[in-house]
Amino acid sequence: MSWFGRWRRARILERHAIPPRDFDAALARLPILHRLDASERARLHEAVSLFIHDKTFSAAGGAEVDSAIRLAIALQACLLTLNLGEDSYRGWSEIILYPDEFLRAREEVDEAGVVHHTRDILAGESWHGGPLILSLADVETSGQTDGVNVVLHEFAHKLDMLNGDANGFPPLHRGMDSSAWARDFSTAYADLCSRVDAGEDTAIDPYATADPAEFFAVLTEVFFETPALLDAEYPAVYRQLRQFYRQHPLHPRGEEA
Q1: Which of 36, 43, 50, 209 lies at 20 to 30 Å from 80 by C-alpha?
Q2: Helix (H) or strand (E) holding 138
Q3: What global pTM score does this model have?
Q4: What are 23-77's pLDDT values in tens digits?
Q5: How far apart are CA 195 and CA 226, in angstroms?
Q6: In 3D, which of 149, 179, 181, 180 has the Cα closest to residue 168?
Q7: What structural domains and CATH numbers belong to the chain?
């Protein structure tokens, strides 16, 4: 980080740090964060303060956005990047919030050249180089260690997009093996797809089989929300995500299995 970058960071934290009382209260409402130790919480406090200062939160469709909602979103977004670079969410600035699930118009052209217009009902959406959109109703139920987390899901897409369109293959860190990542994720993806196609009621959300990008995002949710489930179902993917996020939810505070 440049001298100016360090100066700017220190100035923001001096002037705009989230009050500790508000931070602690918000963290207490999110069981997904309770495994963090004092050092991690201190770093998360700084990251959240910087995040809220740098991002714009916009209301749409009559949503009411207050400081508690902004803090809940920032806490979970910054959990993903706690041990990554502070510029992990670079290149975009706006978070748009709807009160509930929202409609997205979509246009597709089939093999015969016929244009089809559809409308999808979404809880969240991430645009490459553009805003991230969330349903407040789904934000309010995220972070409860039940395996479903729209905030983690959409911010995982943003990390995936750091090297182009979301495809389930984000930029890996030095020392990570790209061929091993591709092998482990492809094997798990194919297995889950076959189980869902066979009608099995899988513990992992079948939406993960939509495409590799959704698989990465859904399994990121599972990694942080219910890590024991992911380790039991797809241990190789758990190990890859452990390396990618540089966290070990099954054994917090640096403990090893």
Answers
A1: 209
A2: helix 136-139
A3: 0.90
A4: 999 999 999 999 999 999 999 999 999 999 999 999 999 999 999 999 999 999 9
A5: 20
A6: 181
A7: 1-145 (1.10.472.150), 167-257 (3.40.390.10)
